[in-house]
Amino acid sequence: MNDTSYKNAGIYTSLKELVALQYKASGFSFLPKQPVHSILSGRHNSRLRGRGLNFEELRHYRAGDDIRTMDWKVTNRTGKPHVRVYSEERERPVLLLVDQRINMFFGSQLKMKSVIAAELAALSAWRVLSVGDRVGALVFNDTDIIETRPHRSRKTVMQILQNVLTLNHALKAEYAAAQNNAQLNLVLREAERLSGHDYLIVIISDMSGWNDETVKRIKRLAQHNDVMASLVFDILEKSLPDSSRLVLSDGDKQIQVDSGKTGLKQLYTEHFESAVEYLQSELKKHGIPVIPMNTRDDVLSQVRDAIGER
Fold it and tell me: What superfamily would CATH give domain 15-45+96-307?
C-alpha cells in the first residue's frame, strides 16, 4: 500500500511517521531496572524479569558470592561449598499484539485510538531493536491476523510497520457493523502458540469485547512469559461532555449525538468504570502491569511518564 497523505491529521497514520519514531525511541525500557516512579517498578506492579539466565558452571564458593546461588546438593555431597554460576541471556524476544479493529477507529482528542496504537507499536519495535532483542508482532483487525515472527532486523520492524499501516488505512466508519469481539481471544490464542516461553508480550489495545476467557488467556500467557497491557482509551469514552449535542466524524462523514438524552452520559461512565477499570484490577491482581494511553497526549511522553524518564 502506498503511503498516502491524509488531510485530517490523526485519522490515519503514515509510514513516514512510524519510521521517524525510531529517532525518538529512547528514554524508556522494558527491562527490569526502572525509575522509582515507573509502573514497571515495585513488587506490586510488575512480573517483568528482564532477560533470563543461562547456567555456565559449577565452582567452589568465593567470598562475596550470593548465597542464593549455592548448590546445596553438591555442597552436601562434597563437604565443600559450591555455587552455580549464571550469565545473562543476550536477548529477549518481544511480541507486540497491535489492535486495529473498527472499535479502535475512534478519537475525540488529538488522534484516533488506532493511530495511538500504531505509534506505540512503532516506538516499541524500534526500542526493542535498538537494544539488540528480537521483535515480532500479531497485527489484527476484525477479520485478519497478520503474523510477523520475531527477528532482530530492521527488515522485520519495517514489515511490522507495513502490516500496521495496511490495517490502519483499511479502517472505515461504515465498517462499524463488522465489529468482531471474538477476535481478541483468537489473537491471544495465537500469541500463546507463537511465544511459548520467556517472551515479553505487549498488548496494545482498548480491550473492547474482553470477557472471562480473555482474562484466562492473558493469565495463561503470563505463566511462562512476561505480559504487559497498554490500554488505549479516549477521554470521551470515560465521560461524555456536558454539551447536549455532539458531532462525530471519520473525516468525511458526520453524525450528531444527543448526549443530554436521559441516562446516556451515566451509561457511558458506568460502562467505562465497570468494564475497563475492572479489567485493569484483574490484570494487576496477577502481576500484569497496565499502562493507560489516551488519545489526547503525545505517545512518547505518555510512555516515558509511565515507565521511563520524567
Answer: von Willebrand factor, type A domain (3.40.50.410)
